[in-house]
Design goal:
The protein contains ten helices and no strands. It is flat, with a radius of gyration of 23 Å. The relative contact order is 0.13.
Length: 260
């Protein structure tokens, strides 16, 4: 009850300070116009559906390629050294390049090469850029999960007569993936927001629709509407991530860890 009372009191104080500030009428007119919100939201919703489609296409590809890069980087086979070096170089370079810059380079650079079979659809090019960027991050998450599995798990699987492939499939991967679900969900949330970056290629998604309506009305309320749509997706995902993290911490405290 004390926590609820303090929270409500804090919210009331903040609300009063904002509502009584000298610039509040101008702010409300520029950012919280109900008429502009109502007229712009149908187009923004249609644009946001494209954001969701981009996310749904890119995410499975990122998971598969990210896991593949992580497996290459963790292999100990001497014959795969060139692939390990290439995977390491890829992860280091693409994690160092800002995603927005990568979207611009891929979106405008690939068509400029005029190579046969190069996609020209800006949506496809945007998906390619997001995949290239996020595979580098996700591969590091998977690699950390693979390395978090205790070596005794591999030794026990070998003692039971499992082959290297069976050990990886039935022992190592299930534990590694369970360990990295919370950080993977954080990457999902970031990817959903970064789908707005494809607007720099001329794709008419939620952010571009908000920009169009803002240029017509000289009012920033459409940006607020677009932000609310992204928040409606990312906040529940963030809370679910926190829940999974608490469950993982509880398992570790109970002595479960990665042995089960």
């Amino acid at each position: 009850m004390i926590a609820i009372g303090c929270t409500l009191g804090f919210a009331v104080v903040v609300g009063v300070l904002v509502a009584t500030s000298p610039g509040w009428p101008r702010f409300r007119e520029s950012f919280l116009s109900w008429s502009v919100f109502r007229s712009s939201m149908p187009d923004i919703l249609r644009g946001f559906w494209l954001n969701i489609q981009i996310f749904m296409v890119a995410e499975p590809i990122i998971l598969i390629l990210g896991l593949a890069v992580a497996l290459v980087r963790t292999t100990k086979s001497p014959g795969l050294l060139p692939f390990r070096l290439a995977a390491t170089l890829y992860a280091d370079v693409f994690r160092g390049v800002p995603t927005l810059l990568l979207v611009l380079v891929v979106g405008f650079g690939l068509p400029a090469l005029q190579l046969s079979g190069t996609p020209k659809d800006p949506v496809v090019l945007g998906v390619v850029a997001l995949v290239l960027s996020y595979v580098a991050y996700v591969s590091e998450v998977f690699r950390a999960g693979l390395e978090s599995v205790h070596p005794s798990q591999r030794t026990a699987a070998t003692a039971l007569g499992l082959s290297e492939r069976q050990t990886l499939r039935y022992v190592i991967l299930p534990q590694a993936i369970r360990n990295v679900v919370p950080p993977l969900l954080n990457d999902f949330s970031a990817l959903q927001k970064d789908t707005a970056l494809v607007s720099t290629l001329g794709v008419v998604e939620a952010l571009r629709q908000a920009q169009i309506h803002e240029s017509l009305t000289f009012n920033y309320t459409p940006y607020v509407g677009a932000a609310l749509l992204f928040i409606a997706v990312t906040v529940p995902l963030a809370r679910y991530t926190d829940r999974l993290a608490r469950r993982a911490a509880a398992r570790q405290q109970a002595g479960g860890g990665g042995a089960r």
